[in-house]
Amino acid sequence: MLTPKDPTAFTDAMADLLRLPDETLAMAYIYLHKYNRFLETSNTTSPLDPYTLSLATVSLAAKSTESPRPPSAILLPAHRLLHPPLPTSTQPPLTTSSPTYPRLRQTLLSAELVLLRVLGFECRLPSPLSYIERYLARALDEIVTPSARDGGGRGGGGERGEKDRDRDRERGKGEGVVDYTRWSREEREEYGVIPLLETGLGREVRRWAGKACKSAEIVNFWPSRAVGLGCVWMAVDGRGLGLGLVGVGGEERGVERGGEREDGERVVRRQEGEWVRRVGGGKVDLGDFKEVVWILGGL
User: pLDDT at position 89, please?
Assistant: First the structure.
């Protein structure tokens, strides 16, 4: 029988067994790191053992992310994971009618209360997963939607041209690239159009966001917006997409700007700042973004 090697593996396994969404597991780790940070700063000993704490974070996160599970759904598989039956054992598995079940249920509820007190009863904490979809959509938006500086569109840059392009995109037409976000739900279902975060790139962003939430350093010291944007960047970069102007043979090309020529490295730095401002909506500090990317690269 499969058993967890440590509390982290136990937390992940419980999220899988309970079929919890990524947002719930991420929030469980955020609670865990906030709790441990409180213990460190207050020089306090935890009244909870690591596995009870893990269960409390999962249970509370499930409630706060609107994916609640009853105590029995949590305790029964958890007990079996931590106390697998031996081949020679005659002890029956835990059930809701077991003599020890009421005590375990009360232990879980008491652990949740301890966690809530440490969190100041504030359960809706910022999470990178709250931002990754909009950031990824913005990162891909220039490919999908020709910008005014491109002069794209059959109707030119005037009002009529904009209306023509909007109408074409709504119909799934346009200048070669279809904006599926404008399709109705019925059209997406008919043609098998999957949500953005279920694409290969979207799943990679979610994977990075999950890794980020397991890092105490990232959760406790960096803004969730910067972390979310950093996760998008790591996924995009990992799939071979970048911001530099690349010429034939792969070398970076310089560009003319304001009558002066910029070298390739300077162009990339400028484009990086522009990308952070545009995709982050002007709410992500460039320095925070770079630090987060550096930390993520070491995970």
Answer: 65
